[in-house]
Amino acid sequence: xxxxxxxxxxxxxxxxxxxxxxxxxxxxxxxxxxxxxxxxxxxxxxxxxxxxxxxxxxxxxxxxxxxxxxxxxxxxxxxxxxxxxxxxxxxxxxxxxxxxxxxxxxxxxxxxxxxxxxxxxxxxxxxxxxxxxxxxxxxxxxxxxxxxxxxxxxxxxxxxxxxxxxxxxxxxxxxxxxxxxxxxxxxxxxxxxxxxxxxxxxxxxxxxxxxxxxxxxxxxxxxxxxxxxxxxxxxxxxxxxxxxxxxxxxxxxxxxxxxxxxxxxxxxxxxxxxxxxxxxxxxxxxxxxxxxxxxxxxxxxxxxxxxxxxxxxxxxxxxxxxxxxxxxxxxxxxxxxxxxxxxxxxxxxxxxxxxxxxxxxxxxxxxxxxxxxxxxxxxxxxxxxxxxxxxxxxxxxxxxxxxxxxxxxxxxxxxxxxxxxxxxxxxxxxxxxxxxxxxxxxxxxxxxxxxxxxxxxxxxxxxxxxxxxxxxxxxxxxxxxxxxxxxxxxxxxxxxxxxxxxxxxxxxxxxxxxxxxxxxxxxxxxxxxxxxxxxxxxxxxxxxxxxxxxxxxxxxxxxxxxxxxxxxxxxxxxxxxxxxxxxxxxxxxxxxxxxxxxxxxxxxxxxxxxxxxxxxxxx
Length: 619
What we know:
Elements: H1 7-10, H2 19-23, H3 25-33, E1 52-53, E2 59-63, E3 69-72, H4 74-78, H5 87-96, E4 100-103, E5 114-119, H6 120-123, H7 130-135, E6 143-147, H8 149-152, H9 155-163, H10 168-180, H11 183-190, H12 194-208, H13 213-225, E7 226-227, H14 234-242, H15 246-256, H16 261-267, H17 272-286, H18 291-308, E8 325-329, E9 335-340, E10 347-352, H19 363-371, E11 374-379, H20 399-414, E12 419-424, H21 427-436, E13 441-447, H22 460-471, H23 476-485, H24 489-499, H25 504-510, H26 513-523, H27 532-542, E14 556-562, H28 568-578, E15 583-591, H29 594-597, H30 599-607
């Protein structure tokens, strides 16, 4: 069995504001009950997120002080999208000991790409491909070079096209558009007529929800790099990269994100005449000809800057982070992120994530469900992972109802007439689905369903957190900011190890390397600062209640006897009141991670539930 010992390097960790909850949870619980707020010292007053970057396809090289290549990735060696090493930039980096991001000098007529040069000692803290991360620690290593072209102009971009639901032809045209910066260039690369390319681009833009070419390119290139942090000041970043004034940076950012020239001028506080002069200078300086080319270069540069700017401890994503991602548009222009694991002919089951994770379903559970004939689907709920918060802020007062609207949208898009539901926690979402979409819901299986925060005893690390939320609701957001800002691999393991220490089944299953990696993948997006969904749901849980639901007679509940968050008997007693006709079973050799340790049991239990009707799918 593949064993993992994350605790071996992360059990101690550095001191931080989360230590009271980790080291003395009982004291924190008692302090919260007494009304004290002493334990809140050090909680974040603002979010300090990390980026999650796809490093597997990054063009990267390590240089010595003369500019000679000591190590390079295969993508760097084979790429035609960047020049040979720029000796002048290497000399500047060595002299200033600062990272520089520069546009390459493309001589093929294509759109320019961004390239980053940084000192090796600083680059050791960046998220890098494995070979580069090792080579940068060699004694002769002096400079690290990162080139963005392989990501924004290759397979990663096609993955982004797939995520937006573009057709193969639209994907090829989009790839050509990003590479060349023009529809004519895209038509040439895709070997189709110009008028045909125009129609293909127009339809692709509608699918992505982009009003202009620049916005279309920005959204595709952005997703190609991975998951971006929220709340980062793009204007300040651009001003620093290219030594622009704050107003110039605001103008460039607005134009690159899809605003017209007049709209961008207004956003930057300039007249159109002044904005035109500024843009003419900027275009000449950066060597770009159109807003589309500018959008590509700006988005790449921002991605490289977020990778290289104080990202110590940032978490590189798993190579398959994009798969099987789909982004479906809401009517308000925002997007819902789903993973459709297939097969398309399987019995659709929506796997609900907990409020402390995102949509990624562990491989062991996906395989178990597929073996029983299911088609697992997972949806990031509003404000989680890659699902945007709805445009109307009223969703925060009813996040579970907002989640139901997204489920309805997904089912309409995929032409699903009925779905089964597997709740990993998330019982409140399942109850909302029964209330709002009863005709859509087939069988429901809840695994370790959480009661509302006001119910039951609270012990241990997570119990101390919940007690804090219950006694001091205003701290939920600050706690979420703090957790996101400290979401590094070592600290994540430290928190988990402390929390599950009293549950041998959970410790055993999390010692399996692949299982833990899948768990971590579902938690990592919080590091980007996307915590709005968590805050909304934790707030809603404070006062959540439900009358008895006799109509849920076919529902089933599996509860782990070693659940380290809640007392299993109290959980079972609570849900027997809400679900008087449901089957509730306590699994004696399981804990909080029952869906991981007993994936086959979970799939078998759902498959054996009586059926109300046969669902129609999109086939």
